[in-house]
């Protein structure tokens, strides 16, 4: 190709007024021309002096561009001989390796564009002046590429809410009440010490002083049985469960989940190839039926202190039966103890783990609801014989860090701030819970039952069996109130209950009434005025 | 059972001098007695007044204990009638549900212990005075319970190093050089503003201003093609890959990995059920053979800017072929661009993603090596049609947070500290690299080749083919020097190269020489004095 035509082509496209530096524009234009074979392999580029003069730019600029093109393999230069376009066209035989019995095509004619769909010929480009920006405006396939089957399922069944705040989002603490100044002060103190060991990867298990502090706290608060070494610091319940799944289960293994259960658990388990067996719950908690018991699972996930989302407590009899069953049939139990600090009117109950004498129970918890969700610090208590395995697994799979943050948290706990904050929040959330319960009673009497209200950051407002709780939630969302429909927590087809989770913890006292009024109107319009037969 | 015998039994076991409060001791002892059926179901407990008098403790203490036992279901009380031990024995029919054709046993005789192996009979306990602490010292099964097959594989093939710092750990930046004071100042400023939105869950994708700052930075530094919306903030490369795997692949799908490659990638992929196809690399990078090309994978993981661990750059021709192959056979490419900022002596090269016009490439990177590994902030650039999917996926699977930290990072970038820190580190690491190279040349001439030294935080010191690089690494570790053997990075059985990764970034200048002397002695003793035939 002619040097003059190239210069004309470039001059037509360089825009000195553009924010993009001339260097970059020139680089990009030459790259495109080479990629689209407008400058075919073997073409000799103009000397830097010539091109600089033709374009009216500094020779150094052209030299830099040529250097970069060389470094990236677009061109190669021989001293004294010039700069030539390299042959970097895709190897057709490799690309088409899969096609059966196609005649062997030698490398395409140098004059043809690599891919006729992508750019017009050079001749066309020159005569029809508008620049062809190939790399900048790629022609994208309009059809989205296929997700995998497990990807489609994950998205289809995703339970996460688009909005994460405000009446009546469940499971969210009131972060505006978090003692930010105290946290910041402790944080600044630790950063001042600038200990480089806190800036690098965490050893498997996490910051040892934090494990000690948590071990002490959990032994007293939750009656767990553990030493600091059994504590593994994670980023929260999702990661804790994921780690256990990867180490203790294989694809196709069966996992018992409560029906209903937290959607996040379902997603993590299914995404890892486990088969879920939803087990019904009654007022004593997990209640497996004969067929369930006859096929022992590899894993059972339970929320014995406060069933999520319905709120019942697993009775002592059921706990003992479950533990004995697990021991006999070698089932791993994951005890998800997600919000047991917030029990109103009675002491927190002892963990299932503390009752276990066979090393069947892996206890998991998180500090997010006690402090702030963005913190992403949780913990697992691993049975003693699994500690090394879990430490290796977590370092191998996730490369843990955040030691500085763990150190701040340790100080926060040791100085008593965790306990005092939790106590204060328990009182505040207790108030808000009462305001909401009173509003419900005033409006609906006992028409609509309230379930699981003795603990946690939410309770469930039951709806009649003919109600479509997803539709109610959608209508409420339109009206500006977030409620999570119970249907979203069921793994099976036919939820045995209808209702909505109402989170009150993150709602300022004075906003609870008005938000509830809005919700009540929605319920009245969508559910209570509709007869069971019409639904 | 007799009230007097119970009181005697308790008195023998309560230790007022113990650190553990009497309340807790009494609670624990009664729980144990009930669990082991030493206090069988139906037993009437002494009145609180009587027990308090017998034990010489406050009546209130006994009342509290009885309250807790009631709350937890160990006992039930009828007003005026007394407190009775509840029947919470495991349901034998449930526990044994799986056993075929066993005669139906009615609930066991109340006088027998639930499990004779766990505790002696009450009579024995009384006559042989020493306390039987059941729950506190559980009898654990001495055999570790089985990990799953994928769990065993993960642990067996774990590549993570026990020690994460010091000569010559690869991939670790010098965190003592991190501008901690600046970071702390920005952090304190943001915490002072105490914006509660920064303390809660991150919306899918992460903090928008950070996505904007990264998008600008990456477009310039790495020639990627993206808008801020295409950026997904993750906790690093492990999570980015995990997310892509869960959304785009199914169990059993094939994944191309470079041979050798980063062990973390291998672990994440295998743990998620993918079949790895290790593809050899030559001096132009990934070099698939005919059989590889005939079975297109679902996913291909590549490190085109700086092959990890060997360091070659993927040539432009190979890049174009790979992209064309991916487009034609609908292969997802994950471009892992892990340390491209640290290129010595030439500009960073353009990304593969910037060349892609078919939306095949998912670009992933991390800020850990630029700033500090404990930070755990990374990013993915998702093809446009996958953005929503990835955002939903990350929120569903991991519940992202750390918005405050993302906000600090944004300020750090916008104020120019990222760029200046990287520039400073590039110069420092360049010095260290040179010191180590000079030491190698002085000691070994060109007997042992150095590979991949033009970029990164490490290079590879090649060893003769007869060398056992794992053994060399072990001997070096014993001598106090960490090197990672190349063998650990190969997925297949027969590594085609021998050598060791030497990381120099985290080693103070003055320590490089001495550490290398130690290593050189180890090499001389274990490799160079041994003839190829003797090995």
UniProtKB/TrEMBL annotation, chains A, B:
Residues 20-88 form the HTH gntR-type domain. It comes from Paraburkholderia rhizosphaerae. GO terms for molecular function: DNA binding; DNA-binding transcription factor activity; pyridoxal phosphate binding. Keywords: DNA-binding, Pyridoxal phosphate, Transcription, Transcription regulation. This is GntR family transcriptional regulator. In the C-terminal section; belongs to the class-I pyridoxal-phosphate-dependent aminotransferase family. InterPro entries: Aminotransferase_I/II_large, HTH_trans_reg/aminotransferase, PyrdxlP-dep_Trfase, PyrdxlP-dep_Trfase_major, Tscrpt_reg_HTH_GntR, WH-like_DNA-bd_sf, WH_DNA-bd_sf.
